[in-house]
Amino acid sequence: AAAYNNSPDWQRSFNILRYRKFGYTYLVFNLERQKITPNLRRLLYNILVKGNFAEKYLNGNGDPVHTPFLLLNDKVLPSLRRVEVLKSPVRLRMVTNSESKTRRELVLFLQQYLKTFNVYLEPVFLEYQTFLQYLRRGDFDMAVSGFMLDIDYDLTDILHSESHFNYAGYRNPEMDALLERGIREMDRLKREKIYRSAHALWLNDLPFLPLFSLYYHVGISTDIKIPKTVSTLIGAEGDFLINISDWKTK
Known about the structure:
Layout: H1 8-13, E1 14-21, E2 23-29, H2 38-50, H3 53-58, E3 62-64, E4 90-97, H4 101-113, E5 119-126, H5 128-137, E6 142-148, H6 156-159, H7 173-184, H8 188-205, E7 208-221, E8 234-235
Parallel strand pairs: 1-8, 4-5, 4-6
Antiparallel strand pairs: 1-7, 2-6, 2-7, 3-7
């Protein structure tokens, strides 16, 4: 995408389609570790979600994510949590998939960024299958992973007590009930109300923090006419073609 701006031949051949990935990178806490206190989780929420961390890190290459629910709803905004300043250093083991350049660079960025707040990270970079084993057996304090949303906003996969991918070890019967109601409710407005309640519960418990969605780019032949009406395109890497009736070109 960067090289495209310097290549007249490319510009004559195709346009660049930029779209937002329907999912996000997130930071998950191991709730079974004593050092992962509610105060620490709220502090990191203020720094990484409420603060301007994402904008500094992304530098225009994506969008911050303020809630795991209603991802595309701009009305759901972050709110400052009440915290106590850390009086002594907190040392945390953070694991991630080393095969992902984005996650590796994020962890290294976080390692330097959080020192100011008395939080010291020990990065552990792992091959993907080994990384999954660490997550499943809870061999971490915090971890950076990615979550690809399906066509729905349902988060049963990572928040339900009985989910295989609930790496935080989060157990909340009220959240389980909301997730089960949400997946059964067909009315759009009623579903939004359910997920707003789930958002409030997540904000209270903070088992993980959504961080950002990245922009992806695809080349579109100049033989294809661009619709007059444009909109922000959102999709997974393989499903953008089903939405190609509307796009926003760079």
